[in-house]
Amino acid sequence: MNIRAAVAKQLHRRIAPLVDVKVVLPNGEIMGPNKPNLPVMTINDENFYNRLGNDLKIGLGESFMANEWTAKPDLAEVLTPYAEKLLHIVPGWMRKFRKLFEPFQPKNEENNLEGSKSNISRHYDLSNDLFQLFLDETMMYSSANFAGENPNWNNFAKAQIRKIEGILDFAGVKAGMHILEIGTGWGQLAMQAAYRGAKVHSITLSKEQKALADKRIAKAGLSNLVTVEIRDYRDLEGEYDAVVSVEMIEAVGEKYWPTYFDAISNHLKRGGRFGLQAITMPHDRLLASKHAYTWIHKYIFPGGIIPSREVIDQFTKGQMKLVDQRPMGMDYAYTLKLWRDKFMENRLKVKELGFDEEFERMWQYYLAYSEAGFRAGHLNVWQLGFEKL
Fold this sequence. Notes:
Blueprint: H1 3-15, E1 22-24, E2 30-31, E3 40-43, H2 47-54, H3 56-65, E4 69-72, H4 75-84, H5 86-89, H6 92-96, H7 98-101, H8 113-124, H9 128-132, H10 156-170, E5 178-182, H11 188-195, E6 199-204, H12 207-219, E7 226-230, E8 240-246, H13 257-266, E9 268-280, H14 283-289, H15 295-299, H16 309-316, E10 320-327, H17 329-345, H18 347-352, H19 357-375, E11 380-388
Parallel strand pairs: 1-3, 5-6, 5-8, 6-7, 8-9
Antiparallel strand pairs: 1-2, 3-4, 9-11, 10-11
Helix pairs in contact: 1-2, 2-3, 3-19, 4-19, 10-11, 17-19
């Protein structure tokens, strides 16, 4: 065990009593609070600490991918208590000097015109068949709105439609309007807008998503109202009565946030509405971590960064005024849990598509890690309605 690994192990020993997780080491030693019914983290290999010592954020996920630790009864149950105590268990000196030892996001993942295409393709062009294995029938890959109902698979599609209708209401979408959607997904929002009688121009950078969205739109008999185009938001033309964008801002990148909001304002008619659904994080956490290269960047969303509400307020100020808002943070935790349950239920089919066990564990970790972020309050998701001034 190298020096950095030894430091990581000692740090884990120090924080273990503070976190409501039972930790079982490879030699059978048990760490953690003396409480009943705690979730259990079992470390199978001492290499776990080598990975943490090399890079805490990336190492924890890579160690899970390598099966060097396991979780019972549930991965998110283990990750959530650590997420809840994150700011208290990481020593102040580590937070202060994090920029000296944390890797930065690579230049080739910047979200310029070419970089955005590559970053989007690496995630959304994996396989439509893969996404169909864990998404509900709406194929919405964003937070549902359960509106207080008990979240389960039987009401999942209903909760997704409720989410869509909510953002369309915030955007004031009505019959006869010409609306712009930035980020097509697999077409359900555009279809719901068309059902209202609106004409929709939807743009995406994912070839796979466009192909399936076109099929779904045609099957619904809506091709006369919905046009899906491979186009960057920076290459738009014309004006629209309303603009909608659901969880696309997270892929824009800090450098291009002003460009994104300017594009929306420039192509929205005066008095028109903008409906935005965005994952957010606290502003102080954004400032502390915005340049860091994390496990999520490396394996799931290259080039991504989650904004804060303050960022959104900053770049809409003077162009648009906020007229509606709806937080749905815990709804996203429920959404992610349902996705992960379905993904694990279909893991044999995932392998049949050609994805190996490491990929399966990577996606299991991604969904549980994200769920823990929402459960711990480090992340939130908002539906916001703006009116152009």
